[in-house]
Amino acid sequence: MTEVLSPETVEDAVALLAEHEEAMPLSGGATLIAMRNASLVEPTHLVSLDRIAALRGITRTEEGGFRIGAMTRHCETAACADLTGSFYVLRRAAGMIANRVVRNMGTMGGSVANADPAADYLPALACCDAVLDIAGPEGRRQLSILDYVEDWYETALEEGEIITAITLPAPVEASSTYRKIARVSGDYATASCAMSLDADGQGLRVAIGACGPGPLRDRDGEAALRGKLDDPAAVAEFAGRLVALADPVDDVRGSAEYRLRLIPRLVTSVLSELTQQKEMA
Amino acid sequence: MMAKKVLHSLTLNGEQVDVATPSGATLLETLREDLRVLSSKRGCNQGVCGACTLLVDGKPVRACLTLTARCEGHEIQTVDGMGEDHVMATLQRHMVESGGVQCGFCTGGVLISARELLAEDPMPSREAVKTALSGNVCRCTGYRTIVDAVVGAAEELAQ
Ligand SMILES: Cc1cc2nc3c(=O)[nH]c(=O)nc-3n(C[C@H](O)[C@H](O)[C@H](O)COP(=O)(O)OP(=O)(O)OC[C@H]3O[C@@H](n4cnc5c(N)ncnc54)[C@H](O)[C@@H]3O)c2cc1C
Ligand code: FES
Ligand code: FES
Prior knowledge:
The complex is a heterodimer. Chain A is built from ten helices and 13 strands. By secondary structure, chain A is an alpha+beta fold.
């Protein structure tokens, strides 16, 4: 038996989570209710975040980036025409999550909190250098998405904390996209690649999904690759560094070895897609 | 163990219904166990199979992943309350004519997903139909006749 609580402010939600030891925050429920139905979790209280107006909506920040409320559904992100250029990757990833029905339910905050290694938002957000806004018993804080996943299903989120928003910093002049390798449409990724290519053709940001506990991003490698994107050997070396950082598992979606082979192919193929797009524009 | 029950006031297919349901129940449990509305099927109870799909405020969601407590003040529609809807009626007829229905367990969910697709994309390709129905598992038909039905309904509706 679970009691459902519906606070209307972030402060009340945090207080309720602190008050009840076995309470859990509930966003879309697409993962949490499925887990409860399977008796994998047995919370005494579910603190529903759906009545908290402050957690909703996608708004532009003063810096020209975006603040995406944690309760924003995947379907809203997938339909947000303002997410262009270096942020298009996030819109594209949202549209590839599961199917329309699940996209009507799941939220960005819930997906990030759940930190499934094969989920689509984490690599897309890593590619955008997103920042998480967090509220908890000790107050509010911000955390870079790159410091967020600590191990398999382990994150830097502390007991009793909730994600309130995901902030995208000021945009860079770039085009971006998301590629997902999955067995069938609607499945979780076997491997995925989020990439954004600077408009001047010099720099690149890449994050690989489903090949380790969290998204793989190699900023030193990106810096070394600057200005050498038309040199296949340099690109191959960069992809090799991502392979070295990867720590994939064997599962029903593919073997670890297959995933390691996908990484360089994804990097070259997505880079050539973005380069061609730029040449045609 | 008997779970503590709570009272909820819901809007189901345009009518106000009051129901006592276990605290923390899913909408699927409340509909099937407490209200005996059986059109939403319980397949996986995990959000995967699509057999429980219904509309909340006009949008398809999984009833097995939706809490009844969060439905107060929202409009719930099940497939049996949608017979008057022209698009739905056309889809239903094509499903029957093309052999898209065998045991019928998946059919309600398939129809709701298909109707959502046609609202957004009135002339979908076969590929688009398959993608839109990727969250609806059917263990009888092999899917081809279901895709035929959706494409056939779209063509008829476009005339
Ligand atoms: C059939 C199916 C297919 C799917 N396919 C994909 C896919 O291809 N790609 C993909 O990325 N995802 C996929 N998902 C997952 C989906 O995107 C979920 O919606 C998401 O992982 C969880 O989001 P939610 O809002 O439903 O969170 P919930 O289920 O409500 O919560 C998930 C977890 O996060 C905690 N939590 C929720 N909100 C917060 C918050 N704001 N702060 C802190 N903790 C919080 C909860 O306590 C819980 O532990 C799939 C899900 C289903 C059911
Ligand atoms: S019973 Fe809800 S999706 Fe299978
Ligand atoms: S007709 Fe039997 S499951 Fe689809």
